[in-house]
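PROTEIN DATA CARD
Card holder: Protoheme IX farnesyltransferase
Chain length: 310
Origin: Fertoeibacter niger
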Amino acid sequence: MTDTHVYAPTGDAGFGDYVALLKPRVMSLVVFTALVGLLVAPVGVHPFVGMAAILFIALGAGASGALNMWWDADIDAVMRRTRNRPVPAGKVSPGEALGFGLALSGISVVMLALATNLFAAGLLAFTIFFYAVVYSMWLKRLTPQNIVIGGAAGAFPPMIGWAVATGGVSVESVLMFAIIFMWTPPHFWALALFMKEDYHKAGVPMLTVTHGRKATRAHILIYTILLMPVAVGAGFTAIGGVFYTAVAVVLNLMFLAGAIRIWRRDEAVAEADGYAVEKKVFRFSLYYLFLHFGAFLGQAVLASYGLGGW
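Structure generated from the sequence above:
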């Protein structure tokens, strides 16, 4: 991290600024996928324990966000998408963001261990470390594969939810992890296609910066193709069934169609229309993940009534 000393706090930080440090949009995805992992697990959890677990997982996700904003304040300051975040905007000092993130990290991990089990807490601790240190501090500024490897941090929540219930991992939890892991690169590269200049100004070696938009389009298609068998294949495990598989097939065909459109796009045409297709595919990728995990949940509800299995 560089030049964080220039972000002098204005002294007018409010509650909303500290909430913003937690990256609530990202947290909502973390909470939902962790909740699904918890609910589809073969072992039941007392509702109070389950609610406590999700709360502490959410706090852990928020801690990761705060630590990321502390470290990336210099990058955030020059990117249009992030320059109004609390630290570069001067609402919260870097030291406050760091302290806030560390405090939440400790609280979330210790409380999850007390409420559930050490394995789940260990996974949460590793997830925070992976996002804050491995991705934010190491990979993000080092390699165009930053989002490929770093995407693992966002893929752990359903595994943590599953571990809360079972105390371990399984093929099913690994597949939920793999879906998010494989989805992350095409999701963020679609964003990078129309945000390339921001990453270039910030000195972040996103694939669009190091290899160009044409190569990025090809990579989006390749990862989307690789994602399909993972996502559909989960339908043939204990957490899958007819309903989930049908939803997965439709969603993946739609995602593939979008990736093919991006791959075929001429750069001049894309620039002329404001990257409309790329933005549309990026938005769809968000729905893709929520609907996938919603389908896991729907399949579990059907299974509770003895329906929807193979």
